[in-house]
Amino acid sequence: MAIQYIQYSQQQRNIPPIQFQLRKCFWGFHTSSNLSYFLEKVDFLNPNFSNKIRMAVTSCPYIEELVFTIPRIDSIKHLSGLKNLTFLYIDFGVCDDNYLSEFVSLLVEIGPQLKHLGVVRSNIIPINVAIENCPNLTSLKFSSAVDKTNPEMVSSVTTSRLKNLTLDKCDKFSLLYALSCCTNLKELFIFDGSCLDDNLLNTILDKNPLSELKVAYISKCRLSGRGLRNFLISAKQLDTFFILSDELFLCNEDVLLQELNRVNTCKSGSKLLKTEIFNQKLNPCCF
């Protein structure tokens, strides 16, 4: 529903503010659309955008799931008024502001109520901000090229609630931190695992053997056959996996599975990606 329509309906003829019963909303625009080529001409990027978001929050207080492409950081504070929000997918790709402190402040307020959080196209938010301020998360998607996760914090926090983790373009400290924290992880998707080699994997497994992991998708990593063997031995519950690494070109995965007496299913990457929780949640046929 257009924010402009909500604003219009509240201002006409002194009608009391309307409260819609919407449970799922998309605010912003899809960044793959033609609008992304004309950002300077898009109306909602103007200084009144924050006020429009405030009105939208007032008019849609029952929202449980929100996808938000944020162009101006001054609008993010209004999301704290969504007391029923449990799913937040926020895209910082068109936000040029320094938004770290505002985002942390938002998570301090609504983090405990969130069950699913997606933070994408950010280059300043470290992953520990999401994990430490959202103790009840069951699913987290994090896409950030930031290299600010403190390596000394790797063992400071653990979470048994987080079951689904999706990572993209994370540095090695972020990867080590996240996989060390998530002691009851069921599904892991890593889209750009260029920092994941055998040594880093062994360090991760020493801290968290990933013994509850059932599904793993790891692309563009640097694991060798030895690393894959160690991974399969440690992740005893692993049922389905897809691992793409140039170092595996000499490794026959079927032979390795037979050697380990495992019945794991090695799926094609495209099929496995369809099961990732955020792909399912954001599917236009479902949302």
How would you describe this protein?
With 287 residues, the protein is of the alpha/beta class. It has ten helices and ten strands. It has helices at 3-11, 49-59, 100-110, 127-133, 172-181, 198-207, 225-234, 253-259, 269-273, 277-281, and strands spanning 24-27, 65-69, 87-91, 116-122, 139-144, 164-168, 187-190, 215-221, 240-245, 265-266. A ten-stranded parallel beta sheet has the order 1-2-3-4-5-6-7-8-9-10. Helix 5 packs parallel to helix 6 and helix 6 packs parallel to helix 7 (225-234). The protein is elongated, with a radius of gyration of 21 Å.
Summarize this structure briefly:
It is built from ten helices and ten strands. By secondary structure, the chain is α/β, with parallel strands linked by helices.
Helix-strand category:
alpha/beta
How many helical elements?
Answer: 10
Uncertain segments are none
Strand order of the largest sheet: 1-2-3-4-5-6-7-8-9-10
Approximately how much helix is present in the residues?
25-40%
Q: How are helices and strands ordered from N to C?
A: HEHEEHEHEEHEHEHEHEHH
InterPro entries: LRR_dom_sf
